[in-house]
Write a structure and sequence with these properties.
The protein is mainly beta and 117 residues long. The chain is built from no helices and ten strands. It is 0% helix and 47% strand. The protein has a six-stranded mixed β-sheet, with no helix packed on it. A four-stranded antiparallel β-sheet has the order 1-3-8-7, with no helix packed on it.
């Protein structure tokens, strides 16, 4: 299993950024996928999860601002982040679920997102 994130970087408050994750080594369309993040000096938390047919769930901290999506034909997972805030600064991780319904399995290497003016 390999998960590779891309799209991170520095963004100003109020701006938008899209993260992508490409998965390989497993049947992407058979697993729930999630985005987690770990802010500096804090624990890692799940912020969004999407099932294979694209039913999504969000943490309250990002609901209404972030959108998770997937393209099963391309083995890709996305996180569209809008109206970003300094507290969104974190290392973001792509995660493969343990099953169709969820769970936490394999991790990507993580990608840093910094929200600052």
């Amino acid at each position: 299993v390999q998960l590779v994130e891309s799209g991170g970087g520095l963004i100003q408050p109020g701006g938008s950024l899209t993260l992508a994750c490409v998965g390989s080594g497993f049947t992407f369309s058979a697993y729930a996928m999630s985005w987690y993040r770990q802010p500096p000096a804090k624990e890692r938390e799940r912020i969004a999860k999407i099932s294979p047919p694209a039913s999504a769930e969000y943490a309250d901290t990002v609901k209404g601002r972030f959108t998770i999506s997937r393209d099963n034909a391309k083995n890709k997972l996305y996180l569209q982040m809008n109206n970003m805030k300094p507290e969104d600064t974190a290392v973001y991780y792509c995660n493969k679920g343990l099953s169709y319904w969820g769970g936490s399995g394999s991790w990507g290497q993580g990608i840093r997102v910094t929200v600052s003016s």
